[in-house]
Write a structure and sequence with these properties.
Elements: H1 4-27, E1 32-33, E2 39-40, H2 54-84, H3 88-119, E3 126-127, H4 129-155, E4 165-169, E5 175-179
Length: 184
């Protein structure tokens, strides 16, 4: 049987992907590109006609940054708690962050698109690679949350009444020893 520590480390590597993609997407300007080649993003606005008003820009920036941070906190907590605790309730705590992060990212970039399209409906725009990176970060973030939920669920004890070397009598009264696999 695969050690729970190995599964946690695989999840940590998987969790780095949406964090890295989210950071790259936030610091690059290729969210949208105008026909003249100018670009703009949630954080950096190089094309004044594509800049959101302050309140809407702050809202979308905050949601995007909070989403990436929540995924990071969830991955870190999953690794720390997954390696050193067996308390099932504590192991579920990072799931809140891992699920909330992608949801915040999704809401943030959907609001960004909504506000932007409301602001300029007549200018043809293409989605830039930064916008697509954020979508991929959101999707991989959800996959990471599901993965850690699976690892957490598979690491919970099946029954408190079984020991590592339980035995039972079979139908023909032979003594059969059942050895349960160790998780660590």
């Amino acid at each position: 049987m695969v050690s729970i520590r190995i599964l946690v480390l695989i999840g940590a590597v998987l969790g780095v992907i949406p964090i890295a993609l989210g950071i790259v997407a936030l610091v690059t300007t290729e969210w949208i590109t105008s026909s003249s080649g100018l670009t703009s993003s949630v954080v950096i606005c190089s094309l004044p006609s594509l800049c959101l008003p302050a309140s809407e820009a702050t809202l979308t920036k905050s949601l995007e940054i909070a989403g990436v941070v929540a995924i990071g906190v969830g991955v870190i907590l999953s690794v720390i708690l997954g390696m050193w605790t067996k308390n099932l309730l504590l192991l579920l705590l990072p799931q809140i962050f891992l699920i909330a992060g992608p949801i915040l990212i999704l809401i943030g970039f959907l609001l960004y698109a909504k506000y932007l399209f409301e602001m300029i409906i007549t200018v043809p725009l293409d989605l830039g690679y930064s916008f697509l990176l954020m979508i991929i970060a959101c999707i991989v973030g959800f996959i990471t949350a599901v993965y850690f939920a699976f690892v957490t669920g598979s690491s919970s004890p099946q029954s408190e009444n079984y020991s590592d070397n339980d035995s039972y009598n079979s139908c023909d009264s032979k003594r059969v020893s059942v050895v349960y696999s160790q998780r660590f």
